UniProtKB/TrEMBL annotation:
The keyword Methyltransferase applies. InterPro entries: COMT-like (IPR016461), COMT_C (IPR001077), COMT_dimerisation (IPR012967), SAM-dependent_MTases_sf (IPR029063), WH-like_DNA-bd_sf (IPR036388), WH_DNA-bd_sf (IPR036390). This is Putative O-methyltransferase YrrM. GO terms for biological process: methylation.
Amino acid sequence: MTTAPFDHLHSDLSGFMHSSILGALAELDFGTAILQNNNSLTAAELAQQRACDERGTQNLLDALVALGYFAKSGTGATARYSVVEKYKSYLDSRHPATFIPMIRHMACVQRMWSQLAWSVKNGTPQEDIPSILGAEQDNVSFIMAMNSIAIKLVEDTMNALFNAGILSSINSNLRILDIGGASGTYTEAFLKKLPHSSAAIFDLPVAIAQAQMRFKGTDMESRVSLVAGDFTKDALPPGFDFAWISAIIHQMNREKSRMLYAKAFDALNPGGIVAVRDYVMREDRAYPVDGALFGINMLVCTQDGMVYTYKEIKEDLELAGFTQVAHAIDVPTMSAVVTAKKPS
């Protein structure tokens, strides 16, 4: 059934309220605090623990109850709040499946989106306003947010890579380079699927620190090299059979993405494969819808980031020296994959 114009407008306009409530929850870490106290606190108790205003705390808690994330028993000052069972793992910052870093990151993004008209007018992002956690913690939130979403996508992505013939368990003795691999979610998945392979993660020091925590003391530690560097400035280490560029190219313009492809080309052995995971836009750039919205995200958050059509990705890979370019995984999400080969 087609949505009435007024209802469509009203729904889109009010969405920021829900996301703002979740952003405040994550930045103040209310869910974790309640769960640390046997999943039961009054507004006054929580306000004291988190050094927040009691009235503000109660308003936020009641809104979270209204949205279905929290439950409330009793009324007045003695009312107690708890995290709804099905959201416990997502709203507990201590849990491996936590979604708190992603919510925090999206709260930062929302502050940038609020200045969209200025970005459209000027063509550049506006002032980056840090969260109450501070800019350094916001960087950590971004890195771990990528892990929060990746752990939901990685299994399907791995299966798609095998089903498309990009990876094969028959030829599993590969050296894999995960460019901008952050905390190593995909590297871990590659090594599980390809038990005779090794990998290197190349990323900024703050991301490498998160990868060290992931692999330290595990049976994969000896199979992973962690290399700190900036792929926009530094050369990539050489000698790899497979290069993974996951959710990277949207951060840069075509000139910079071509430079990255050229570095990946140099890092690969002859016959090596590069796989680029990102949105792949239709020629009209309006589909997939999430990709078009993500293009706005790049406008407000980066100096020159963009989403790409397959034609643009293909041209830039070929300019870097790659051949046999293919839209190997054609899906309307950021899990689309374009592959290319370095000539033997």
